[in-house]
Amino acid sequence: MKIAVITGAASGIGAACAAEFAAKKYQVIGVDIQQPVEKPTADVFLEYHTVDLSKMAQIDEFVEKISKTIDHVDVVVNCAGLTIVKPFQQMTEHDFDYVIAVNLKAPFFLTQKLLPLMTRGEYSNRSVVNISSVHATATIPHMASYTASKGGISALTRTLALELAKVKIRVNAVQPGAIQTPMLIEGYRALYSSPDVNLEECIAKDAENIPAGRQGNGKDIANAVLFLANEENSFVTGESLVVDGGFLARLSTK
Fold first, then answer.
1. What start-end ranges are recorded for coiled-coil regions in this protein (predicted)?
2. How many other CB atoms are found less than 10 A from the CB of residue 182?
3. Which residues of 148-161 are buried (b: 16+ CB within 10 A; e: fewer)?
4. Of 42, 70, 114, 245, whose CB is crowded by the most CB atoms within 10 A?
5. Alpha-carbon gap, residue 203 to 180, rounded angstroms
6. Residue 253 pLDDT > 80, yes or no?
7. Would you name the residues annotated as active-site residues?
8. Can you list the domains of the chain with their CATH numbers?
């Protein structure tokens, strides 16, 4: 039985990862601060845990709970994330700390605390996949804390790939571009300072700047995560795979 722990599993990319891993016969343990936005089919989650990943005590409690019900973990997908869109001068210490806690600190310590389960039993290789962002490479104004967190995740991915290779754990990241998720919609509203922003216009405008001609969806990223987690790709570690429809390949969008 293959077991995957997936954070951010309530919606967006995390929910798509949960569905795709379940379709590949993984037993999925979902983690999120919320209950699933859409009621999942009964065969998606082996277990589902409501956890505030910004709080270390809740991470500890979660790991303690699952350690009593499972005997190993094959894949960890660190997908939970958030952004606070504000000018740099207006970003508070609380804003910064919260984004870093969820986007960077939680993947760091959740992976660390799951290592005993990931190194248990006989296995050829196991895998951690972190969800970074194109914002780790190129960004826009008002995203300082988010960009810092995702740059940190990409750097952490490389470091962990080196350290965990000795225990046959590969560590990679996916850098999504514009993906139609609840977080992207909230980002539009914050950038344009309006809850009533025309989302269709925003999506169409973004698509004009993407060589693939469209924004991505959760399944696009889930497929990339599955690729990196696949045991057949055992020589791939320390990589950040950009999945953005060609956006970063362009010299300019003007």
1. none
2. 12
3. bbbbbbbebbeebb
4. 245
5. 8
6. no
7. 146
8. 77-249 (3.40.50.720)
Distance (Å, rounded) from C-alpha 106 to C-alpha 129?
14
CA distance between the termini of the chain: 50
Rounded Cα–Cα distance for residues 129 and 132 (Å): 9
Count CB neighbours of 246 within 10 A.
13
Residue 135 is encoded by which pair of tokens? Answer: 């914002």
Residue pointed to by tokens 């995390």: 14
pLDDT (average), residues 180-194: 68
This prediction's pTM:
0.92
DSSP H helices in the chain: 12-23, 56-67, 93-100, 106-118, 144-164, 182-191, 199-208, 218-229
Q: What is the dihedral of CA 177, 179, 185, 188, to 10 degrees?
A: 30
Give yes or no for residue 51 having a pLDDT over 80. Answer: yes
